[in-house]
Design brief:
127 residues; alpha/beta; Rossmann fold; five-stranded parallel β-sheet
């Protein structure tokens, strides 16, 4: 496995103190497995201007947060059309996956459809 791709569900699991998710991410870091997400996912989960989302802030320091630009937006739209789904954020998450990655998601059905439509051999794991 080359990286764990995190959707909003993975971040929210950490924020609510889900021990299994925290352990999974800690083991990934110990094994030098990268953590990847994007700025749109961060927007879905970040709500606190005062910094009280400490667990989330700590996790973000360890995550490669990729930009979502016009090209990514267009690719996401095409992928949504191929997969027959409509969640733009899910599409941007699926686009982050590379061969051998695992996508940690609270929505495995839609993400699986998107990954299959994109032809990327990545595993989808419910969080």
């Amino acid at each position: 496995m080359s990286a764990l791709v995190l959707d909003a569900g993975a971040f929210l699991a950490v924020e609510r103190g889900d021990r299994e998710m925290v352990a999974r991410l800690r083991i990934a870091q110990q094994r030098d497995i990268g953590l990847r997400s994007n700025a749109v996912v961060v927007a879905q989960v970040w709500r606190d201007r005062a910094g009280r989302q400490a667990a989330l802030a700590r996790l973000l320091r360890a995550v490669e947060v990729c930009a979502v630009d016009e090209r990514t937006g267009r690719e996401a739209g095409v992928l949504l059309g191929r997969a027959g789904t409509s969640d733009v954020v899910d599409a941007t998450v699926a686009l982050l996956a590379r061969p051998g990655d695992r996508i940690l998601t609270s929505d495995p059905e839609d993400i699986t459809r998107l990954v299959q439509a994109g032809g990327v051999p990545a595993a989808v794991v419910r969080c």
